[in-house]
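Sequence in, structure out. Go.
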Amino acid sequence: MAEQAQYEELIRQFSAFGAVKRELGRIMPSDCPSGSAAVLTLLGRHGDMRMSKLAELLAVDMSVTSRHVAHVAQRGWIDRSPDPADKRSRILRLTPEGRAQLAEMSRRTCRMLAERLSDWSDDEVAQLTVLMARLRASFDDCRVPHAPLPSDTEPRPPTAPVLEQSPRTPATTT
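Output:
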């Protein structure tokens, strides 16, 4: 198991990663904030779905999901139609304009990553991807109760990672 100093350095790196996220956010179209980008990404990855499923994938409550959905619907990027199985529910689906917006976000993100990681080998990029997926999987299992920490200074032992791709990651798709 890693030492406390290693976890402390990891915490510092997480804090610094905010700068990476902010820079990626700055290249997004001005009318597409991160919540809207996440909605488009999830609909692009998973296809049509109910708002409740989208809220689950976003890991936010329905009121937040509703605001994100309203924003993308106002721009014509998604369509909300009655669910044939339950007329009280809506089915969300990308419109052609939404697919175009998603493709543009993907192009911008891939271009920036290619520029910033140009001095990285393909193997290093692949290794980062695997490690980030593993880290995310370690946090995705938040519904499983973990044993309490033995003390405030001892980190919890890591659980076995699940290497499936999380639907909560708002990575762009091509």
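Check: Residues 149-174 have pLDDT under 50 and may be disordered. DSSP finds six helices and three strands in the chain.
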